[in-house]
Amino acid sequence: MLPKASHWGASRSIAAMAFNFLSSVGIVAANKQVFRAAFHFATSLTFWHYFVTALGLALLLQVRVFQAKHLDWRKCARLALGNISFVVFSNLSLQHNSVAFYQLMKHLSTPVVLFIEFYFYNQSFDTSLVRSLLIMVAGMVVAFATDFNLNALGTCFALISVVACACYAVWTGRLQKELDANPLQLQLYVAPMVAAMLIPFVLVADLFSKEPGRRVIDYAYTAENVRLLSYSGIAALCVNVSVFMVIGYTSSVTYCVLGIAKTSAIILTDFLFFGRPLEMMNLLGILIALAGVTYYSILKLQIASRKASTINANAMEKHDHISFESSPEKKQERAPVQVR
To answer: Where are the transmembrane segments (predicted)?
Structure first.
């Protein structure tokens, strides 16, 4: 039987992963509607997402959903810079590569996370867990190996985005522990920094480099389009907060596993319910990846169960020791012998 703390920790982790999964699906749907409304300004949309995240967290702070905590802004700025690097190079990777290659490289951050945790932070991993992660990555390779259009520049951007994504995931978890900050407290610092850092990219990509009439400020901000942008921003707030929750409550590795599960589930849902074409190799790869996700989940449950059993055994041993120390027999042993 799991202790109450373990029950609470497991429930919190499951809730965070479910929140991230649903919000990720929501932002994909919202962004599709935004792009269909002819808002073709990806950099500005990213800025909008982090601006809404910062504004939303400020409102949550005002209504006392959480309490602010003074954090080292320099360490938070490093995390924000890692986030910016990940976003910028992911967009460049998508721009210069096929969608399949982009998706594959995005999930190759999983072994990079393992390497960073092991080499730089001396984090050890169970061999079975590593095996399950390799199964997932192999599944992604099979699923997306059907449409590769490689080029040197695109591959370079993709590799940088993989490293940036892995560093961002690891730093997010490590910084929460180092600063003893919860996900909302840390994101309250990071989100406005990311939004501020994105302003020069917005000016270059969506304002100065475009002709009059095609700039972001020339877009038709009708009531309907503003409503769609608002939905996208709220979904982004949920995604950004839930990412920090998943990494903080579980680990950077589990966050990567959740990413693979989300990609597989979204593709299967499109295939089953929306008629998305899917080749046999795609389906086989996704099933392999999901098998790896299932294997990983079972192993994590077994590890949690073993830890809980150890905690219970130690608690029982301590309880028995205290009971024995306070027993009448033990007290009699300690009673002083009177010498006549």
So the answer is: 12-35, 47-65, 77-94, 128-146, 152-174, 186-208, 228-248, 280-299
**Separation of alpha carbons 292 and 259, rounded Å:** 13
> Is residue 292 assigned to a domain?
yes
Residue 297 lies in a domain: yes
Nearest CA-CA partner of 186 in 84, 78, 64, 62: 78
Q: Which residues of 106-143 are buried (b: 16+ CB within 10 A; e: fewer)?
A: bbbbbbbbbebbeeeeebeeeeebeebbebbbebbebb
Statement: residue 243 has pLDDT above 60: yes
At 340 the pLDDT is 45
Domain extent at residue 61: 4-303
Position with higher pLDDT, 268 vs 55 = 55
Q: Is 326 contained in some domain? A: no
**pLDDT greater than 90 at residue 72:** yes
CA proximity to 114, closest of 98, 128, 133: 133
Total structural domains within the chain: 1
Segment 291-334, tens digit of pLDDT = 999 999 898 888 877 776 666 566 566 655 555 555 555 555 55
CA 332 – CA 324 distance, rounded (Å): 12
DSSP for 257-301, written as a single string: HHHHHHHHHHHHHHHHHS-----HHHHHHHHHHHHHHHHHHHHHH
pLDDT per residue as tens digits for the range 191-225: 999 999 999 999 998 998 888 888 999 999 999 99
Residues near 305 by Cβ (< 8 Å), separated by ≥ 6? 2
Q: Are 169 and 246 in contact (CB under 8 A)?
A: no
Q: Which token pair is 294?
A: 């299932």
The reported pTM is 0.83
